[in-house]
Design goal:
It is a single chain. The protein is mainly alpha-helical. Helices cover 87% and strands 0% of the residues. The chain has a domain of 70 residues. Helix 1 runs antiparallel to helix 2, helix 1 packs parallel to helix 3 and helix 2 runs antiparallel to helix 3. One of its GO terms (molecular function) is guanyl-nucleotide exchange factor activity.
Length: 165
Amino acid sequence: MCSCLLSMQVQLQRMWDEKGAKLDQVVQLRKYEHDSAQMMQWIETTAQSLSDDHTDIGDSLSSAEINKQAFHNFQSQISGQYQEISRVITVGERLVGSRHYALDVMQVGNKKLRTSWERFSRIVEDRNNMFELSVVFHDWQQKFFLHIDVWSEACSSGLVPSSTG
């Protein structure tokens, strides 16, 4: 009888451990899904904000510089989110590596989150380049317009040689 009780105790302990491990994995999955969904929502919302609020390249050098600075402020605000997204991806990878029962779901979720972040990062980089080029364009435009009077006067006075001969 004692040996039977010991056997049952070992079996119950094993079942308890298995169920506890499964419950831990369920909690981990729910937490991962919640965090991943939050990050995806943040990316979508911020990408929409980027599309809505950061499109004007300006109509002068000063407005282009103001828009560029506003965009740099926007970049500063979102820079901290990268660490949070990386954390969620790392947690997902760690859980997949631990042979989590939902590793297929986590792999798909991680890939989707990583792809969305990379796409968003490319959009931010492209937008940054657009603002940089806008400032350069408006600077050149301003310099060009400053010289129009000088060039016009030189052409009128005959100081510029004719291309016809």
